[in-house]
Amino acid sequence: MTTISSYNNDKVVTGEVEYPASDPASGAFFQPDYKKNEDLKIMLDGSKDSLKLEAMKRIIGMIAKGKDASDLFPAVVKNVVSKNIEVKKLVYVYLVRYAEEQQDLALLSISTFQRALKDPNQLIRASALRVLSSIRVSMIVPIVMLAIRDSASDMSPYVRKTAAHAIPKLYSLDPEQKEELVLIIDKLLSDKAPLVVGSAAMAFSEVCGDRVSLIHKSYRKLCSLLADVDEWGQLALLNVLTVYAKTCFPDPNEENYSSDDSADKPFYDSDSSGSPGRKSAPSPSLDPDLRLLLRAAKPLLQSRNAGVVMAVAQLFYHCGPAQELPPIAKAMIRLLRAPIEVQSVVLNSIAALTVTKRSLFEPFLKSFFIRNSDPTHIKLLKLEILTNLATEASAPVVLREYQTYVTSNDKAFAAATIQAIGRLAVAIHTETETCLNGLLHLLSSKDEWVVCEAVVVVKRVVGGGASSAAPAVSRAAKLLRSDRLAGNARAAAVWLVAEHGASHPRAAAVLAHMAAAFAHQEELVKLQLLSLAVKLSITQPDTVAMCRYVLSLARYDASYDVRDRARLLRRFVDPPPGSLLHQYAASIFCPDKPKPTIESSFKDRQQYTVGSLSQYLGSAAAGYRPLPAAPRAALPAALRDAPPVAQQAQHDTDTQKNKTFYSEPDSGGSGSSSSGSSSSSSSEESSDEDESDKEEKKTDKGNDETNNYRLSNSGTSDSETDSDSSSSDNSSSDKSSAESSDEQPSRTKKEEETKPDSGVQQQKDNEKSNLELLLELDEVASSLPTMTPTCGGFLSPPTTTPMQGIGDADSIVPVGASWAGGAAAELVSRVRCGGLYAGRRWPRTPHLFSQRMCALEISFTNHSPADVTNVRLNKKTLTGSRAIHEFAPIPSLAPGASASVTMGVDFADSIQPIEFTIISSLGEVGVSITPPVGELMRAVTMSEARWDTEHKKLRGMTECDKKIGKLEDEQAICKRVFETANVAAVTSTGNLLRFAGRMMSSQDLVLLSVRLEPAASTVTANCSNMAVASLLANDVAQALNRL
Amino acid sequence: MIHSLFIINPSGDVFLEKHWRSVIPRSVCDYYLEAQRASPNDVPPVLAAPHHYLISIQRGGVALVAVSKQEVAPLFVIEFLHRVVDTFQDYFSDCTETIIKENYVVVYELLDEMLDNGFPLATESNILKELIKPPNILRTIANTVTGKSNVSSILPSGQLSNVPWRRSGVKYANNEAYFDVVEEVDAIIDKSGATVSAEIQGYIDCCIKLSGMPDLTLTFVNPRLFDDVSFHPCVRFKRWESERILSFIPPDGNFRLMSYHIGSQSVVAIPIYVRHSLTLRSNGDQGRLEMTVGPKQTMGRTLENVALEICMPKCVLNCSLTANQGKYSYDPVSKVLLWDIGKIELPKLPNIRGSVSVATGADTSGANPSINIHFTIPQLAVSGLRVSRLDMYGAKYKPFKGVKYITKAGKFHVRM
């Protein structure tokens, strides 16, 4: 017993033996505040999951109620490793809430999340990333960055979605990560899963909403995915696409006359479909890509989510042609049936829209009629809309409604109605009289409130039409005499009399009546009385005495304003001798005044995006980005061509090439990638590319490569159908053929430029295969500054090194071979194959099919007396990752003729021979080719410094050197080296000749150097593939020894 | 995006708060409370505080206030808040202060799952129910015994499929599909009994308990009636556009398949009429009220649950009336006269008459009370809409199908 009680004394404040310490969840622990969380700590420290869960539930309860639970942090954070999923979840919730306050302790949990990020269960990976990125501790920024980058390429779309969500979190934690995050966003935007795209769009608008250029390449895909994305994603995506459309497409209503009258001028014809001819077809000038977006967005008007409907409305209003707006109006009207909060926002937007686009909502006038049960702010919005919508035709209906509203119990609403009647009176001239009569009728209402409001409004209306002033004046005069008006209204009535009734006989009587009680009037009324008195003294000279009386009353008034005004006005009534003021009094006090205009208070909300928070509030909210102005001319559509998915997809689709892309708009986003590049777009592309944003170096570079690639394709089609394709009806092929023929002369020149110092010239241009010819054609056509105009350039692997700036000295740049192919060696002797001779040569040009392939030129000569037909490659024996891309079969070879073809071989960086058979009408013959190691690489060049650093990395085992005899002639050495291996010289100083290359398959760097020393020279080869290094060193040493 | 959410009870206490980004002190709600105090029934849904924007909805006696620090589409937030309340109602069958307080852990887990960093993550009820099981006594007991938890450790398959609204592996012993076609008549009738405006707002609510992955098509006899429609995401829009049929793979359980609007352009039958006369004399202290209600254009159906709600002018102190059917009550504070009639059985027309006492000397000329009418008509869709057939593909069993029509008064308003 004693043991138990002492045990209890440690932990249980109540100290009662009846409460066993082993059951702390029993609720007996309502203790004084200073130890209130002890029990929770005990429960969390225990080993029972159920107790932990109970404790966590109570802690979450505290958080939910806003109580501070931060002192439990150490106890809670331990349980982040709990096996129980619910405990874990609750710990996550806790952690996210308090990590910011307890940064050091929070770091303890990070390793758990890092481990969970590798979990096979996608839900656990995702939730780990969620929590990790929600812990706002700046110390873990690099970890989160890494986690996001990994998760962005996770297999599970759910995890990728979470990664997209994490991006804005990291951005808000550390804005300096922006550039790197933008890269990830770019990647996620081109994701194919609808689940991911919506969140990626959200991340895009949160982090870099102004970088519209990121959208270009995935634009069509985004449009086609729009329908499949979940509703919240649709919302985010629509917002992004609206900004995009506004930035990239010219305003479709600009040159389109048909929309002008409905957009700008009030459109009195209530039937908006009155012009069937214009409406029948969408304006032809609409950009096809914009059309794609609008078509994809339109079904979303039928969404159950009001936010999505509004986002579509926003898109159509800001970017769509005016004649397509009516369905938008209809959908917005439908939203008026939604909960009151939605109504309020929608009405607000409609109110702003009706200021200019009245005709849009005119058919729905009755939907805005007001019920007594509406809340006041809804009533006021509807009233505003009704007033905006009223036309000459509908004004009687609206006025009849207003009559009912005026008698409403809701004072604010009744007052607004009177104001609205005033606006109608000014706006619609046919109704001015009716409105004024109605207002005058209200002047005699028994409700003072109504009367006061009415007087103020009458004052405004009468200012507009002087013809109807007389009855108003007499009514006002009557009211003034009966003393029933309150301050503002009384002042307005006096003004009314002064302004329009100065010659009215009753005016003097009014003045006399009011002057009698001058001292008791309000200040505003006194000021008006003064001007009435002066005006009267001008128009009715017999009242001057009364005017003087009023002025003298005002002279001793309590208000300095009144006294000042009196002193000023006295000069007009009792002019000092010699003053000219008196003569001009009439033109000063009774001039013709311009009509007042009463405008909708929603006019200035026009400037904000429809449906935005700023529009609702009528002022720009924090973080509000106005939509950019539409550009004058559309951005070239080619920017939006999706990059090709696989390069070979293009190879065999010559037939499709002349089809324009837009002939099948439905294939828009996803499908387009396969053949999305019509020849027209690609040829435009290259010229547009120069203008495109320089700041997007990465993406641009990526495009460059593909563009060039396509150019070569379009060239192919041209030359295969014979180079003179100007007769072809396709304008695009005209263009590209023109281009290619233009370039033809300059081509040779360029070649000379690029290979000025390689002594060996290409001997036999005419013998080259079509493909090669085109390759070079293409390389010339690409006049881009970013490209090295050599064969090596455009097929260089995109993954090799991060592409850096154009003039960056530190990059590794692929260059053309310094020595293009030696003499042909015999492959198949004429004896072996009944007269068909085959020779092979290493042209050292990159192979078109894959960058990993080494081009091998085979030239066939027919020494037999008959035609040899159908020369082709038959069986290939391949091991491992090796591959062969066959050459195009030669249909027939006349006696004595020869033809050359190029095949591509991926040797997988090994000099094992490849074997295949060549079959022809003369029979089949087996061939085996052993590549020299020097052909397995491609020449690259780099700065000397870079070479040295790379060299340092490849020391030790990966280095191999060979001693050779004394050498002196650098020129000769270089020539030998170039003959032996496809490497390029690196500008060198001193006695070390440096060369560099890159393996075809593995992309490993190969560094070769020759050290010239007085006694003996050394050849050193470095490559991470040791076999290659030693082989190369041997080969080069042998070649040099022959010198 | 939504930074924080506060749930406030009618007396102005914040009883739940949840932050998705940095903590925002709850004092920010004062701006909302201030506006609410100024006019309890007329709080604008969007309020601007100096550094925050408050977007709020009121439902079920509680107010949900979402706080954002920057520009955000107000409808996005409002729609989301409504979805939160819908989810609560789905889980706990109601959304009141007591129920939220009882289930704060589940509520917190739900909120955590629905929103990530202020952007919705999962809002489909089918997905949420797989992630976090709705509480019920049976499961609570089972969990205590077996040590299982309410929280799923695997990702619901729906999240990744292209039908995210349907959970997988649904099995029922009795396969049933029920459709309720509900139409609400919104109308304004003026003094003389003429219709000022009338519209029909319709819904098709479903309760679908079908095993497997059924693919349903619902065909209407007269689909041309619809003016404007909105659909649950499961409906294939292409087929609606081309063939005017609803083709969909339904979510499991209760959901709203479509809602439609038959607008003010088409003629809407008004199924009820009210003859009324109210005279309030300003000199005397007595006025007279007489009202008769009767059916009109009901196509032979009876009007049920008829109730009239009249907002009397301020000057009316009390009413002493006699009704030949139903009960009436008058609340002198809110000035609302409620007459609960019930079913109208012909040929007897419900009638109420009597005197009203008016405050002496009060101005009675400008008063224009209005009547709000409630009624339901079972087995009738007032627009004439009819479901022609329901076909099911993709499953072998024969489901039990049922369609129910009902017409109700929406905002049915008669001016006196």
Automatic annotation (TrEMBL), chain A:
Membrane topology label: Peripheral membrane protein
Arranged from A to Z, the UniProt key words for this protein are: Cytoplasmic vesicle, Golgi apparatus, Membrane, Phosphoprotein, Protein transport, Transport
Positions of the UniProt region annotated as Disordered: 254-286, 641-767
Q: Composition bias, kind Low complexity: at what positions?
A: 672-684, 712-739
Report if keyword Phosphoprotein is assigned: yes
Q: Where in the cell is it found?
A: Cytoplasmic vesicle, Clathrin-coated vesicle membrane; Golgi apparatus
Q: Which GO annotations describe the biological process of this protein?
A: intracellular protein transport; vesicle-mediated transport
Q: Where is the composition biased (Basic and acidic residues)?
A: 694-704, 744-756
Q: Name one Pfam family in it.
A: Adaptin_N
Q: Which GO terms describe its cellular component?
A: AP-3 adaptor complex; clathrin-coated vesicle membrane; Golgi apparatus
Residue ranges of every copy of the AP-3 complex subunit beta C-terminal domain listed in the record: 767-912
Family, similarity comment: Belongs to the adaptor complexes large subunit family.
Q: What is the annotated role of this protein in its UniProt record?
A: Subunit of non-clathrin- and clathrin-associated adaptor protein complex 3 (AP-3) that plays a role in protein sorting in the late-Golgi/trans-Golgi network (TGN) and/or endosomes. The AP complexes mediate both the recruitment of clathrin to membranes and the recognition of sorting signals within the cytosolic tails of transmembrane cargo molecules. AP-3 appears to be involved in the sorting of a subset of transmembrane proteins targeted to lysosomes and lysosome-related organelles.
| Name of the protein described by the UniProt record | AP-3 complex subunit beta
The organism encoding this protein is Parnassius mnemosyne
UniProtKB/TrEMBL annotation, chain B:
Question: Native species of this protein?
Answer: Parnassius mnemosyne (clouded apollo)
Q: Does the keyword Hydrolase apply?
A: no
Question: Where does the chain cross the membrane?
Answer: none
Q: Which residues form the MHD domain?
A: 174-415
How does this protein sit in the membrane?
Peripheral membrane protein
Q: Where in the cell is it found?
A: Cytoplasmic vesicle membrane; Golgi apparatus
Write out the GO cellular component annotations.
clathrin adaptor complex; cytoplasmic vesicle membrane; Golgi apparatus
Q: Identify this protein by name.
A: MHD domain-containing protein
Keywords, comma-separated and alphabetical: Cytoplasmic vesicle, Golgi apparatus, Membrane, Protein transport, Transport
Q: Which GO biological process categories is it annotated with?
A: intracellular protein transport; vesicle-mediated transport
Q: What is the lineage of its organism?
A: Eukaryota, Metazoa, Ecdysozoa, Arthropoda, Hexapoda
What broad class describes the main subcellular location of this protein?
membrane
Cross-referenced InterPro entries, in alphabetical order? Adaptor_comp_med_subunit, AP2_Mu_C_sf, Clathrin_mu, Clathrin_mu_CS, Longin-like_dom_sf, MHD
Q: Does the keyword Cell inner membrane apply?
A: no
Tell me which family the UniProt entry assigns to this protein.
Belongs to the adaptor complexes medium subunit family.
